[in-house]
Amino acid sequence: MGKTAFTVSLAEQNDLPIISADSRQFYREMKIGTAYPSDEELSRAKHYFVGMLSIHDYYNVSMFEQSVLALLPTLFQKHRVVIMEGGSPLYIEAVCRGIDALPDPDPQVRQYVNNLYQNNGLDAIRAQVQTLDPDYFASADANNRQHLIRALEVCLQTGKPYSQFLHKTRRQRDFNIYKYYLNRSREQLFERINRRVDLMMEQGLLEEARTLYPQRQLNALNTVGYKELFDYFDGKCSLEQVVTDIKTHTRRYAKKQLTWFKRDYEEILLS
Questions:
Q1: Residues 246 and 231 sit within 8 Å (Cβ to Cβ)
Q2: Residue 155's pLDDT is what?
Q3: How far is residue 196's CA from residue 246's CA, in Å, rounded to a whole number?
Q4: Phi/psi at 84 (5° precision)
Q5: pTM of the predicted protein model
Q6: Four-residue CA torsion sign, 178, 179, 184, 188
Q7: Angle, alpha carbons 127-89-9 (nearest 5°)
Q8: Are 100 and 161 in contact (CB under 8 A)?
Q9: How many Å apart are CA 217 and CA 221, to the nearest integer?
Q10: What is the rounded distance in angstroms from the CA atom of residue 222 to the CA atom of residue 225?
Q11: CA dist 208 → 107, 150, 180 (Å)
Q12: What is the structure's pLDDT at 217?
């Protein structure tokens, strides 16, 4: 049983709503590549923030925080407990702890960072973010160009780690918060990731990515699964290599997620 199946079962048995905190599942055009809940799973429990955006829509973690906090009073009128489930730690923590307003971008800093990326690639951005804010880098998606560039801009502009702005001031919430993360043996986890990628390919991930390829410059598509397939469409690698890369990058990100959740979440060990 995976995260989605576990959560849907729990919600169904106890008549609880689910708030998705998987930032990739916000976009309705990316169903296969984001392991979107199936129609059957969506019918068994009420879901919020799944497929509510187009890849062309602008959205950020602060908007998510505000939207969830506006929704929760209505949900708590009917339910004593609301489940928030997903693998985007910053979005979860924004609701639990709050997020401080980020400074407006400085044009000179933005130009410097853009030049750094254009001349030296994403590895140069990663290296600087890792040096200036190792805490953020430990949980960040190392393939998300937009997030890493913004983090570096804030670090350089303010002289402070980007993560300080995300968790600088803890907001008081008028509800109790209980945090859990699902875990299993590393061998089982990686085996499930590999199988899931194979299943996505069988379900039509290649075709889904091909339809999105003309919009590949959009930030929503700058994510594991689609980025690698876009390289295949560009003739940079074989399809076999793409599948291997998707598995590798997904396993790498899963390890970063566990590093984050182990800090102050209680473990539920799955067999």
A1: no
A2: 93
A3: 11
A4: -115, 125
A5: 0.78
A6: positive
A7: 145
A8: no
A9: 7
A10: 9
A11: 36, 28, 33
A12: 84
Q: Are the CB atoms for 171 and 97 separated by under 8 Å?
A: yes
Residues in the chain: 271
| Residues 6+ away with beta carbon under 8 Å from 207 | none
Residue 33 near residue 226 (C-beta atoms within 8 A): yes
Q: All domains of the chain, ordered by start, with CATH?
A: 3-100+169-178 (3.40.50.300), 107-167 (1.10.20.140), 184-263 (1.10.287.890)
The pLDDT score that the predictor gives to residue 139 is 80
Q: Evaluate whether 250 touches 224 at the Cβ level (below 8 Å).
A: yes
Please give the distance of CA 243 from its chain centroid, rounded to a whole number. 20
Distances (CA, A) of 52 to 49, 88, 211, 260: 6, 16, 19, 26
User: What stretches in the chain show pLDDT beneath 50?
Assistant: none
Q: Mind listing the pLDDT tens digit for each residue in 113-136?
A: 988 998 999 999 999 999 999 988
User: 148 with 126: CB under 8 angstroms?
Assistant: yes
* Structure token pair of residue 266: 């209680």
172 phi-psi bin (left φ>0, alpha ψ -120 to 50, beta other): beta
Query: What is the per-residue pLDDT for 103?
Result: 75
pLDDT score, position 270: 81
Cα 197 to Cα 242: distance, rounded to the nearest angstrom: 11
Residue 48 has phi, psi (to 5 degrees) of -125, 150
The Cα–Cα gap between 8 and 18 comes to 8
Q: What is the pLDDT of residue 234?
A: 96
What pLDDT is recorded for position 168? Answer: 55
